[in-house]
Amino acid sequence: MADIILFWHRRDLRISDNVGLAKARQKSAKVVSVFCLDPGILKIDDVAPARGAYLIRCLQALQDNYKEIGGQLLFLHDSPSEGIPRLAEALSAQTVIWNNDVEPYAKKRDKAVKAALQEKGIAVETFWDQLLHAPGEVMTKSSDTPYTVYTPFWKNWAQQDKDKPAENLENVEKLTEKEQEAAQKAGAIALPSPSDLGFEWDNGFILEPGEKAPRDRLAYFCDRAIVDYDEQRNFPSEDGTSQLSAPLKFGTIGIRTVWEATQKALENTRSDEARNGIIGWQKEIAWREFYQHAMYFFPELANGPYRDQFKDFPWENNEDYFQAWCEGKTGYPIVDAAMRQLNETGWMHNRCRMIVASFLTKDLIINWQWGEKYFMQRLYDGDLSSNNGGWQWSASSGMDPKPLRIFNPASQAQKYDPEGQYIRQWLPELSSIDTEYLVTGKIAPLDREACGYPQPIVDHKQRQRRFKALYKDNKSE
Ligand SMILES: Cc1cc2nc3c(=O)[nH]c(=O)nc-3n(C[C@H](O)[C@H](O)[C@H](O)COP(=O)(O)OP(=O)(O)OC[C@H]3O[C@@H](n4cnc5c(N)ncnc54)[C@H](O)[C@@H]3O)c2cc1C
């Protein structure tokens, strides 16, 4: 009989192009897979209902994929350091395999699980899967230290060879009835529904959960839209970006598969514009990796600003302003449209993420960590490294060589939503307002009242001056 290898899925919810899973299959035909619903992560206050529901639906799809190839996916609802060793022991697994993660919580958890397994004499093997280059592979040439600036990171990262997709999993042996019973005794359960875990989400997802939708979307995007990415990426009313962020967060698509598709698109390209589009998109994939490397090497980022100057920043933290921002009722149309898109779909266009983050921090003078938390409570692609990186960039507290960035909501709307299509889509109450007033935000007070739309809660120019003064004072202290 083949040795049992237990494969622990975490943020790699797929059987295709999965490095650790392919290694497990090379070792044995009897690969048993498990996902542990960790109460330490699945906290209702921290996890967006859309993200929690998407996770469960992806697990359902993964379980179906396993069934198709004759294998199985087990579920535990437990602390991993208790549940994984207990299950491995009950199945007499020789080895437990998983793919590494960069987040501080995951690193601590994995250390505890590894120690508990080793105590029982069970071997552990881990691999890097979610990144094209693992932390440590892209370091400064002068001092072999992690990069803290993106552009040189990108230059080094882009030059390095990338792996081909890992072999897809197939032909695995099923557990015997006796082994199934042992797994159940060790805590294996049926997959709960999203609402069993408290995640109520009826608004659907921009991409269906599971492996198929991201694969189809990648093919469509690389065939058509990627060549126009540089032109289209900043216009939130266009379908100009890949929308692959949630699949990349949960690993329903492999990063090597994604990269290979972009390289093929490059090979098939003749024009400079199209090349710029493709390379522009590859640069975003590198941003994702930059932020994950940063989180790995500087875990303190998860708890506060990177730049010392922001450690004691005198944020005003007005709770009424915060509430208005969350609900999309600030009276600034582009900001409110974006927040309503977030609340209704669990996703927001990148340009708008930057606009609302700048508005929260520089206009409302509210600590960026409030916004970071709210995003994690709403985004279906919510990811610690990218979200924290995006917020710190917008707040000017992070790894960005430009000291102070302040977005003017009106100029942003004029430039990136010139016809007001995005604003009208998410703020239908303003549909009768002329485009000029909509995008400049200069809607007359009486018209606002008639539409049931709020007056601006702050004055952008005044608040910009105030923020700059606070920034200057804090810098000189
Ligand atoms: C304040 C703020 C918060 C953010 N929070 C998140 C988050 O929680 N999760 C998340 O995945 N992204 C986050 N981003 C980055 C970015 O907005 C999203 O990745 C992007 O909008 C997702 O849409 P897409 O898949 O169509 O992106 P595309 O434009 O098609 O980009 C392709 C992929 O590259 C990666 N990517 C693109 N831009 C960035 C970026 N700036 N930083 C890191 N990775 C990037 C994503 O994985 C994305 O799917 C945030 C950005 C900001 C400014």
Brief descriptors of the model:
477 residues; alpha/beta; Rossmann fold; Serine Threonine Protein Phosphatase 5, Tetratricopeptide repeat; DNA Cyclobutane Dipyrimidine Photolyase, subunit A, domain 3; 3 domains; five-stranded parallel sheet; 5 strands; binds flavin-adenine dinucleotide
Write the layout of secondary structure elements.
Layout: E1 4-9, H1 19-27, E2 30-37, H2 49-68, E3 73-77, H3 80-90, E4 95-99, H4 104-119, E5 123-127, H5 150-159, H6 177-185, H7 212-223, H8 229-232, H9 245-250, H10 255-267, H11 272-297, H12 319-327, H13 333-345, H14 350-363, H15 368-378, H16 384-395, H17 409-416, H18 421-426, H19 435-440, H20 445-451, H21 460-476
Parallel strand pairs: 1-2, 1-4, 2-3, 4-5
Flavin-adenine dinucleotide (FAD) binds next to helix 9, helix 11, helix 14 and helix 16.
